[in-house]
Model the fold of this input.
Amino acid sequence: MQAHNVLIVPGWYNSGPDHWQSLWQAESGYTRVEQHDWERPLRGDWMSQLEEAVLATTEPAVLVAHSLGCLLVAAWAAHSQNVHRVKAVLLVAPGDAERDELQGVLRSWSPIERRALPFGPERALLIGSSDDPYCSLERAQQMAADWQARWVLAGALGHINAESGVGAWPQGREWLARLMND
Done:
């Protein structure tokens, strides 16, 4: 697996320099899926950007998504004719765009795609936290079930981001390595 085939799929507002996604990108040369507007995300626009990024890789690609990026992967996979170009997906701390307070801002992200991902539990892993302020444990588990992704509870790590203090998140790297080697 070549580093440029690992696509970092950040969530809303992108991932800052201290976020594990940015640290992995800097350390390993992974490719970030860029968006036109990180502050006002439109699902269709973001799906188009992900499609272009997948098509730019040589097969197989691995998607490493965080927060709204997890919802993006699910929406993209439900509509793309190119899911066969993706070997595996690591979904971390999905955000819940259906929460009442987010309906006005993330209108195009609701309802959340609930179709099974075409990768199966052996190639799709969803990692959640027991105290994520942006998605309840029950909702994250339901997303894993809906998407037919393997569920892993990482513990009490908040939103599993820079504010969680995970740094380069070595445990996450281990899960990614297992996915990439399967």
